[in-house]
């Protein structure tokens, strides 16, 4: 690392916010591509049943601690399912929100881990009543974050004198995390 550049950056931060007691510096950001379901922290399976007047959707999910260097909780989990066909009504378990403008159902789960109900496995279900069916099965999207672990196992240490690492945050977040039926 270029320690002189980090020192210049920290000086700039201190000038912008002189009352702060510390400053965070991101030193490493990277992307990880999936290598099959064994490498994904949340495995998904989707099922669609599309008729002229209704569409049934089920999303099964399973927490996968083996995908992480140190198993950690997935937080702020959001599952977004687009449904076309002129949705007039939605019934769901657990409750989801329907956004008519975007034609998408949204589920929010605060956290998923091994300590969650059923070891982090569950199902999201919805029945959509349609005015212009049938729907076409679509790709769903999932977002979440996790603190305290990485998917790659990468670690950081400071070698040498004169510098110390006061805090090391490990975190991963979803980018393109989707599931097809």
Task: Note down, in words, how this protein is organized.
Helix content is 8%, strand content 39%. The protein is mainly beta and 181 residues long. Strands 3, 5, 6, 8, 9 and 10 form a six-stranded antiparallel β-sheet that branches. Strands 1-2-7-4 form a four-stranded antiparallel β-sheet, with no helix packed on it. The relative contact order is 0.22. It is a peripheral membrane protein.
In short:
By secondary structure, the protein is mostly beta strands. It has one helix spanning 3-16, and strands at 42-50, 54-63, 74-82, 87-93, 97-99, 104-112, 121-130, 140-147, 171-173, 178-179. It is elongated and about 70 Å long.
Give the secondary structure arrangement, pairings included.
Layout: H1 3-16, E1 42-50, E2 54-63, E3 74-82, E4 87-93, E5 97-99, E6 104-112, E7 121-130, E8 140-147, E9 171-173, E10 178-179
Name the helix and strand elements from N-terminus to C-terminus, one letter apiece: HEEEEEEEEEE
* Low-confidence parts: none
**Radius of gyration from the CA trace?**
21 Å
Coarse morphology: elongated
Could you name the key traits of this structure?
6-stranded antiparallel beta sheet, mainly beta
């Amino acid at each position: 690392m270029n320690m002189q550049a980090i020192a210049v950056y920290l000086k700039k931060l201190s000038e912008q916010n002189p009352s702060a007691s510390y400053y965070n510096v991101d030193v490493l950001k990277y992307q990880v591509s999936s290598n099959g379901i064994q490498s994904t922290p949340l495995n998904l399976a989707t099922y669609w049943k599309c008729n002229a007047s209704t569409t049934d959707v089920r999303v099964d999910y399973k927490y996968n601690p083996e995908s992480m260097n140190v198993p950690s909780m997935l937080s702020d989990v959001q599952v977004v399912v687009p449904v076309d066909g002129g949705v007039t009504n939605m019934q769901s378990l657990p409750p989801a929100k329907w956004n008519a403008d975007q034609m998408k159902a949204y589920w929010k789960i605060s956290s998923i881990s091994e300590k969650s109900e059923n070891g982090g496995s569950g199902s999201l279900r919805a029945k959509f009543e349609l005015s212009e069916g049938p729907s076409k099965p679509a790709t769903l999207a999932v977002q979440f974050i996790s603190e305290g672990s990485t998917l790659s196992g990468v670690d950081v240490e400071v070698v040498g004198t004169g510098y110390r690492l006061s805090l090391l945050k490990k975190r991963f977040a979803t980018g393109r995390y989707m599931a097809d039926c």
